[in-house]
Design brief:
Strand 10 and strand 11 form a beta hairpin. 46% of the residues lie in helices and 22% in strands.
Length: 344
Amino acid sequence: MRLKYILLFLFLLPFAGVLKAQNIEYGVMVDTTYMLIGDQQHLTFRVKGEPGMRIRFPELKDTVVRGVEIISGPVTDSVREADGQWLYEETYVITAFDTGIYVIPPMPITVEGKEYNNVLRTDAVAFAVNTYQVDPQKGNYDIVMPYAAPWTFAEILPYVLWSLLGLAFLGIAWWLWRRHKKNRPLFTPKKEEVPPYVIAIRSLDEIKGNKLWQAGYEKEYYTRLTDTVRQYLDDELGIPAMEQTSGETLRSLEQCPEVESRERERMAEMLTTSDYVKFAKYTPLQDENARYLDLAYDFVNVTHQRIQAEKAEQQKQAEEEARRKEEEEKARAEAEIKEQEKDN
């Protein structure tokens, strides 16, 4: 059977034909003149010529000829070659599901250029389609089952994402069930934000009411007193005093415009005495303990009032700036209206 096809192909047209028209080369080609049934190959139209040409290749739909089906395409490409001319190609993927010899007839290619406008026709090309040979001694047998290919990450990823989503859903459901069982609200209301000044004054009032130093707990008294002031510095003035030593806190206060020199001196005196009490077992006098509590009250009150005054001044300036811009816009609008009335 194969020898028969070979003899026939001695008289068939070649599988690739290249013609010339003036300075234009054109033709059509297939990958091979012999293929097995169901295999695929490319059918390629080519035109080579001067730059600036407009090429219209044959418009093929589902089939090339009867029995030759188009799988995909066309795919159009162009490239400039070393001689300066352009090579234009249009490629289809074709197949055949029946044995035989198929001849693709001449196809029209329209070429339009500055000095050339014509419809060119390619040569016919042919190819043979053969089927699989069955060994009579073996006879027919089942199709081999496909090999098990390993899973890729792209194939596993959707299952992983859906599993995580399912776990998240189960977790949320369990959390809602637990809160419902304990009669807790699903969403706790947002706590009211207490200003740092109020927190500091409440803490100082509590220290005053506990009377720690009167009971002999000077270390606990100075620890709570300095922690209250440090927390106020952190929340109100942005000084991380809770993580700083006394010396670092005093250096930070020197860079703080809201704290004056007199207040810094009193703060240095209180922090120094507190360090002596906590680390050197120093026992201050009774009036010193009361004085440092009053000093903490004064520091919190004075700095808070100063900060509030600065905020009020900034707000006033912002309101005046907004009012000034509003008046300027109003005056500009009135001037435009008068200008338009004058023109009319």
